Amino acid sequence: VLCFFIVVFEGYDIVALGATIPMLTDPDVGGFSVGAMNWVNTFSLIGVGVGAAFMGRLADRFGRRRPLLLAVLVFSIFTLVFPLMPSAFLMGLVRFIAGLGLGGCMPVALALMQENAPVGRRALANNLPMVGYHLGAVLASLAGKAAGVHWSLLYYLGGGLGLALLALLWFKLPDSEVAAADERTSAMDVLKPKYLRSSIGLWIAAFMGLVLVYGLNAWLPKIMGAAGYPVADSLTMLFVLNLGAIAGLIISAYAADTKGIKLISLLWFAASAVFLLLLAVPFGSQVLLTAVLFVTGIFVFSAQCLMYVYAGHV
Question: How far is Cα 261 from Cα 251, in angstroms, rounded to an integer?
Answer without folding.
Answer: 12
